[in-house]
Amino acid sequence: MHSWNLLVPFAVGSLAAALPQSAQVESRTYGHDGGYEHQHSINAQLGPRPYYLIDDMDDSPLKEKLQSCSEGPFHTTEMAIGHRGAPLEFPEETKESLTAAARMGAGILECDVTFTQDQKLVCRHSQCDLHTTTNILAIPELAAKCTQNFTPAGNGTDASANCCTSDITEAEFKTLCGKMDGSNPKATTVAEYLAGTPTWRTDLYSTCGTVLTHKEYIQFVDSLGLKFTPELKTPVVAMPFPDPSSNYTQEVFAQQMIDEYKEAGISADRVFPQSFAINDLYYWLEAEPCFGEQALYLDEPTINVDGMAAAIGNLTIYAENGVKTIAPSIPGVLTTDANNKIVPSEYALEAKRLGLDIVVWSFERSGLLKDVAANGDYYYASFNSAVKKDGDAMVALDVMIREVGVRGVFADWVASVVYYANCFGY
After folding, report:
1. To 10 degrees, the CA torsion angle through 206, 207, 213, 219?
2. For 87-226, where are the alpha helices, taking DSSP H only?
3. What is the DSSP letter of 7?
4. Of 266, 89, 236, which Cα lies nearest the Cα of 162?
5. Whether residues 136 and 67 fall in one domain
């Protein structure tokens, strides 16, 4: 079944009168034995950021409509997808990051899935990002196992390191602390290298994020009653792993990810697998059609090596081969018209014509929007001439949801998507 039920009826009891911006969501909590237990309901809190963005908008009917919804009620919605959790302020791919996204009303939570040396599945955005997203370099016995240990900056060369999940075992992975993604290229010590969080993010919640295996992610998200969107990460290491004679092929990896949902008793209609590799989707459509029909093909049409026209042409091929949902980057679905107004792109219009569902990534990932044009920010590249300030993010969101017709928005801070979706009844 391919189903996006955008407003999730998880409300328990009446809304708290003193908390007009919250909704009750059924949940469980982490148990003392390492498992998950039924627990009291938690409040889905939006916090101040959506209000800040709306206040920063130019006067318009859209702004008036959004302001009219300021007191809610707000509910969990599948329009809002926690991209790696809530990495604007929490260490990505950690339990704390997922918890923050759930509290803000994300109906779907993401785990980027890669594998360890002993071929166990874990949540990391890249197979080889441990040196920037965890404290592995501060643990000498594990740093020594990295593909490349820390090399300090010097003689005009930036500091560097390269640590992969495939360098260590699952047990070793579980000893790590998640931190905010970032590194200092001018570092001469490990401590300096690890202190590279972008200034527009924060280390306030970066004490020791709880890293998760894929099975732990499944158990935790299931305990919240939410849905799953695991991304099968394209391996950095050669496949089969660890050597050509191994039977751990790309197909085995792709099947392993699906098997962990089946083993946990999770219905396919709660799972939206993702991949940037179209052959992964074709594999799932053939081997696991119930999951394959739910799958998202991650596309980057603005950087297609053959150009945007080729990316648009490929949509017909994907649709003819059974793909139901494409998930392009935000600049793939937005552009500007002759009046410098944000409008749907040709790619988005063609996807709609073909009947493809669209999910986009990633909202709230760009820092101060007044700088996106000068910085060449990727997420606003196709329409940055129309973006002058933070409030313009809500204009872009409006075009994506109401004009492009996206079914979901990956966001680094989902509160603004939750606010918008509830205000307009999505």
Report:
1. -90
2. 95-103, 130-133, 140-143, 170-173, 190-194, 214-224
3. B
4. 236
5. no
Q: Kindly report, residue by residue over 29-76, the tens digit of the pLDDT.
A: 333 234 444 333 446 799 999 999 999 999 999 999 999 999 999 999
User: What would the pLDDT profile of 167-177 be if each residue is shown by its tens digit?
Assistant: 999 999 999 99
Residue 343 three-state SS: strand
Provide the whole-model pTM: 0.91
Q: pLDDT at residue 15 above 80?
A: no
Residues 414, 391 within the same domain:
yes
Residue type, 133: T
- Extract the tokens encoding 115: 């594998």
Query: Is there a single domain that holds both residue 30 and residue 172?
Result: no
Q: What is the DSSP letter of 78?
A: E
Beta 22-25 vs 42-45: how paired, if at all?
A: antiparallel
Same domain? For 160 and 309 the reply is no
243 within domain boundaries:
yes
Q: Does residue 21 carry a pLDDT above 80?
A: no
Do residues 403 and 315 both lie within one domain? Answer: yes
- Mean pLDDT of all residues in 417-422: 97
N- to C-terminal Cα distance for the chain? 20
What is the chain's mean pLDDT, rounded? 92
For residue 154, give the 3-state DSSP assignment: strand
User: Residue 17's pLDDT band (boundaries 50, 70, 90)?
Assistant: very low
Give the position of tokens 């779907």.
Answer: 108
Instruction: Find, among 214, 324, 224, the residue nearest to 262 by Cα.
Output: 214
Question: What gap in Å lies between CA 344 and CA 312, rounded to an integer?
Answer: 13
Last residue of a domain, one of 198, 232, 258: 198
Specify the 3-state DSSP secondary structure of 227: strand
